[in-house]
Amino acid sequence: MAKIEHVFFDLDHTLWDFEKNSDLAFQKVFEKQNITIDLDKFLEVYKPLNLEFWRLYREEKITKSELRYSRLKNTFDAIDFEISDEVIDMIAIEYIDFLPHFNHLFDGTFEILDYLKDKYNLHIITNGFEEIQAKKMESSKILDYFDVIVTSESVGVKKPNPRVFEFALEKANANANNSIMIGDSIEADIYGAINSGIKAIHCNFEKEAIENSDFESITALHELKQYL
Predict the structure, then answer these.
(1) 201-209: long-range contacts (C-beta < 8 A, 24 or more apart)?
(2) How many domains does the chain contain in total?
(3) Can you tell me whether residue 199 is helix, strand or coil?
């Protein structure tokens, strides 16, 4: 890793604790909307559906508005909770409004960013929605660590499309040989980077079994010190 000058991070599920912050945002929305439903039951169904709809969104098979509506509609249908489309649309809007105001980060985020900031140029590449990613980083007080922030919406395609990584390299005045990508998604972050000629480290915080991997993995952010 001696040649590395630029470190690109994913945001959600890598530095910013999306699951914890998302749960809190839904709790606030349901309280505001007086939705009498067991939140844990809702989230148990919602989370795998959300991942599936994000996959479709990443593959350009659904639009952003379809993602935001369908993941909620399908969840409510699955748990037999009757709710109008009007309220679903309101939940979708308020969820996005509330989400960036919760600021939980993964353990070791500030420690590793402080460790890296004087040695490398730090950047963000995220598939998250354009209108809230900077707000998330500002709320959690990590925005100033990063020189370049690239969202998929600003490029017009999503990770793992090589155009996202090419755009980020150009904007950061970097090249593939002196850069590394760190993220949680094997498909979007790791192979997206590797297929663009960029080294990558997988954040496997759930310690899931990975067979025949051809990339490095960490289970906590402080482990990055072994490589950088």
Answers:
(1) 201/227, 203/10, 203/13, 203/14, 205/13, 205/106
(2) 2
(3) strand
